[in-house]
Amino acid sequence: MSTTSLAIECNAVKKSFGNVNALKGATISARPGEVTAIVGDNGAGKTTLIKCIAGVYQPDEGEIRINGESVTFDSPESARVAGIETVYQNLSLVEDLTIWQNLFLNREITKNLGVVKILNRAKMREESEAMLKKLDVYIPSVRSRTRGLSGGQRQAVAICRAVGWGSKVVIMDEPTAALGARETMKVEELIKKMKAQGLAILLISHNFEQVLRLSDHIFVMRQGDVIAGMRTKDTTGDELVALITGSAKRG
Amino acid sequence: MDTKSNPGSASKPGADSKLSFKQRLRDPYFWSDWLVVVAFLLVIVVFGAINPSAFLSIYNLNNILVASAIPAIIVVGQTFTVATAGIDLSVSSILTLGAVIFGICFTKELPVWVCMLGGMLAGMIAGIINGLIISVRKINDFIVTLGMLSIAAGTALVLSNGRPVQIINSGLANVAINEKFGVPYLMYIAFAIVVFSHFLLFHTRFGVHLLAVGGDPDSARAMGVSIVRIKVAVYGISGLLAGFAATLAIARIGAAEPAANTAILLNSVAAVVLGGVSLFGGRATIFGPFVATLLLQALSNGLTIIGVASYYQYISVGIVVILSASLVRNVR
Questions:
Q1: A147 has a chain B CB within 8 A of its CB
Q2: A79, A215, B72, B138 — which has fewest CB within 10 A?
Q3: Does residue A113 fall inside a structural domain?
Q4: Which of A77, A93, A144 sits opposite B15 (nearest CB)?
Q5: Is the pLDDT of residue B6 over 70?
Q6: Which CATH architecture is the domain B54-331 placed in?
Q7: Residue A200 φ then ψ, to 5°
């Protein structure tokens, strides 16, 4: 496999917290225009791995490459600058701010008057509406506070924010766990659109049907290791369950 | 549309624009924003009814505005710190320190504007130190600014040897005494700061980041907003405004007093709470605390007019603060 066709690679990434070896040398990769799923039981190390990729944790050992270049992130911000966006389970939306303020948080469109950066509210509201329109989730107004939104609406806002900024890799941690069937369907449609735009999507999900439906490639994690990686078309739900529980092995 | 209708609407654009008047009356946010205006009108009506000739005279209303100007400026800084879920207990001592620095510059026969800048600079430096310790060392706002309260007060006493400096300057006296269109100059200055601060909070990138840090510091950090920068800026502004208010205090008194004026601290916190700013951060208005400042001054003015001794006024301000905080708590 040539390295240039990979949007992101993790090679033998290790991370320990005190005595707990959360990652024992995880190796995964993801291609642009594909959904790469990471599955595994609770405590398998999925979240630790994506937090290393997102710059939240710094790996103890191992290497992360983006488009073939080795990178180190000292903060989530430096990962974002490198084009890695994360949609966290807790979403990172400020509840007291409006939707458009959240969508543009730290990326505000401003008119500069000396050192004072004046918000171009009209432009940001307009673009916020366009960003949300892609998802087709009903939100009364981009001017309303995030506090009043449903789980699905919040997820929509968080995903739109992650996609809207020329990112190359979008990490999604259980993007539909808290959603109803209709909103789940819409989020899945959005994931397909993101894929079509050439983004590399890392998807963590406990929902095997969803993983089989959406992903192109699957990595299975167990006890801090990546124990299997295969094309989605070459596997089944039964095999995934067997790998996750440890009753089957695969190279 | 959202900046014209009411003082709180800018912080929750469109949130209540589709509600009927009856629905609005049942909306808790509506009350936390408008409580202060209702209370202010109540104070005016009650004292106006008890003694209209004294309380509602142009002379007396003018007095209330003059007395409100300096607290109103301090309250702006306090609003910023509280909006980041912090508090600045050092404002009154920083004001005193600024006044003493002004006095020192004045006795060295420096021009008044240099004296003024000296006081502002001293205040801003004290504020920046507050912000740095709070954000970099991650020490509680309350403790750090309580420490600064003592440090600034002590520094003011050391530098001045505890002696006031008389400051005679016709320009300053003119600002303190005169008025235009029935409104004292001091109030124009305070109101200009209020309007600018409203603009800063709701129409600039800095303001959004400030509210983000106050509302949810973890999310703000995840989006790359620097908590250190915001905290330093907020406490720096609070100190700067206290240092600037020192000049106005000198203009009013005609002297640089090294004695701390603790009432102004209590008043600033009171006005922020009364003005509907969330002590948990993230939600703020600038006009609410401004109206609250007018309310508190009108209250103590009114009590004086109906002959209540000033000792009781401390009690009344304390009651108003606790009462308003508990009312706001109930509606949230």
A1: no
A2: B138
A3: no
A4: A144
A5: no
A6: Orthogonal Bundle (1.10)
A7: -90, 125
